[in-house]
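Review form for a predicted model. The reviewer records the input and the model, then writes brief findings.
Reviewer: anonymous (R2)
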Amino acid sequence: MGVWILNFQRRKRFFAFKFICNFIKQTTLSDLQVHPSTQISHEISTHSILCKNLSTGTLGSLFQACIAPTPQFQIFLSERQATSSCILRKQFYSQTLVADKPQYDEYNDNTVKYNPLANELNTICRILSDYRRAHHDLEAALNGCCVKLSEDLVEQVLKRCCNLWLSAYRFFVWAGKQPGYNHSGESCTVMVDILGKVRQFDTIWDLLIKMNNQGLPIPRKIFTIVVKRYARAQLAQEAIHAFRRMRDFGCEPVIEDFNALLSALCKNKLVSHAHEIYDEVGVTFPSDMRTYNILIKSWGEIGDGAQALRVFHEMAERNCEPDIAIYNTLLESLCQVGQLEDAYQILDLMKVKGPIPNISTYSIFIHAHCEADQADEALKVLSRMKRYGLVPDVEIYNALIFRFCMMDKVDDAYRLLDEMFYKGVKPDVCTYNTLQRVHCKHRQVKRAMRLLVRMDDDGCKPDDYTYNILIKMLINVGCFDRALEVWNGMEGRGFYPSVTTYTTLIHGFCKRLKYEEAQKYFEEMIDEGIPPYPCTCVLLKKLLLSARKKLIVQVLADKMRKSTSRSIQELSKMMKQKSNKKSGQSKVKMAKEMGSSKAMRIQEK
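Model under review:
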C-alpha cells in the first residue's frame, strides 16, 4: 500500500486519501487477520508522506477519521496507530491559522509523542468555539462535558483558544470555581496575556485584585506583560503606574522589572517617557549594562545622536565601564543619524582604552557606508578588518554584494562571492537572490540559469523569491521551455510551489495569451488545495472568455466548487459566467449607441 501511494500522481492525491478512508471504514476483523500487512497501523510512513501533500481540509477529514475510528476498527487502534494519528495532527495544525494552532510544544523533533489530554482538550476547545458569544450559556455546556480539570489541561486550553478571549476568560473563571482545582501561576499569566492583547485592562486588574484577596501568589512575569501591553497601546502613564503598583500586590520591583519597563516604552517610540521615569527613579535601582544599552539604542532609533552620547558619558561619570555591547550600540546609533565622524572617534577611543573592536563593530560601519552609497569606503573598512585578523561574516558580504549590484557592478559582486568561498564563508540564499535579481532585471537568461546551477553545486536551496523572479523573467522574454524546466526541477530541489509561485507562472502565461498552459497550472493549483488569489481567477476567466472558452470556465468553476477547501469554494463564484440575458442586454445597449438602422433591427429581435 505504501508503494502504491508513493507512486501516485500529484493530481490524484485526493483519491489516495479517499481510498484510505474507505479502507478504514470497511476493514473488519477477518480482513485484519488474513492480511496483516495491510493494517493502517503499520503504514505510519505512508501517512507521513501522504500528509505532506494533502490540503488542510483533506487533512482535517483524515484527522477526524484517525481520532474517531469506526467501531470495527477501534479495538485494533494500537500504539503505532496513535503515533500515526499524531503525525496527522501535527501536519494538520501546521497548515491551519494561528487561531486554531496550539501554541504549546506538543511534539519532539525526533519522536512523535501522543498527547494524553488530546480528547479532553479537543472537547473543551470545541465548546469554547461553539459558545463564543456573550449570550451563549457557556457555563452550562462546560458543566455537561464531564471533563476532569488539571493545571496542564487548563493551560493548554488557554493557549490554544488565545484568540477567543471572551470564551477563554469565561472558561478561566468557570475553572476556578470547580472543586479540587486551583489556578497555577502559568495559567494566570497566560490569561493576563490574552486579555492584554485585546486591551481588557480593567478585567486584568479585577483579576489581579481577586487573586490578591484570595492570597494567591502573583507571578512577577504578569506585571511585565501588563507593562508591555500598555506600552504597545501607547499608554505610557498607565504602563508606569502598573510598574509602581507592583508593591501593592506583594512584588518588590528589581532592576530586571525596571529594564523591562524601559524596553517596552522605548520599543514603542515612547522614549521621552522612558527617560523621565529613568531620571525620576533611576537612582533607586543600580543601573546595569542593559539599562544603558536600552537608553542609548532608543535615542539612536529616534535620530538623536547627541542624547545617545550624553547617556554614554553619564556612564563614565557613574564609574560604570562600558563593554563591547554598549560601544556597538552607541556606534550603531551614531551611524543611524549620519554622525560617522563621531562614530570614528569612538572607534579610535576603543583602540586606545579598549575593548577591542569585533566583527559586529566593523559591520556597523560597513552597513552605514553601503546605505550611503559609499562602496569604496565600505571596502576600506573591510580591508581594515582583514588586517586585524577578523573574518567577515555572511551579512557583511551580503551588504557589499547588494550595494555593488545596486550600482550595476556585477563583476565586483561576483569577486566578493568568490572571496567568500576562499575565506570559508558559505553564501546563503539572500546572497544568490541579490545577484539573481540583477540578472532578471537586465534579462540575462544565460547568466541567471548558470547562477541557478551554481546554487545547486554550492548546496544552497532556492526559495520562493528565487523561483518567482526567475520564472517571471523567462516568461517575459518568451523562454517558455526554460520556465517549465525550472518549474519541473523544483520538486527535485526539495521545494514545493506556494500560492505566489503559482500566481507568477499563471499570470505570466495569461499576459502572453497562453491560456492552455495557464489553465493547466490553475487546475493543478486547485488539485493541490492551494486557494488562488482573486485577481488570478479574474485574469484567467477574462483570458478564457476572450478566447471563446466559456465551457472551460464553467468546468473550472465546478471543479472549484467541489474542492475540499472552503476558500476555493468561495472563489468558485468568481469563475461563474454571467447570464446570457445580461449579455444580450449589453449588446442591445451597444447597438443603440451606434445609432444605425442595424441597431433598430437588433432591438426588434
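Findings: Residues 1-21, 23-113, 579-605 have pLDDT under 50 and may be disordered.
Further findings: The radius of gyration is 32 Å.
Recommendation: see findings above.
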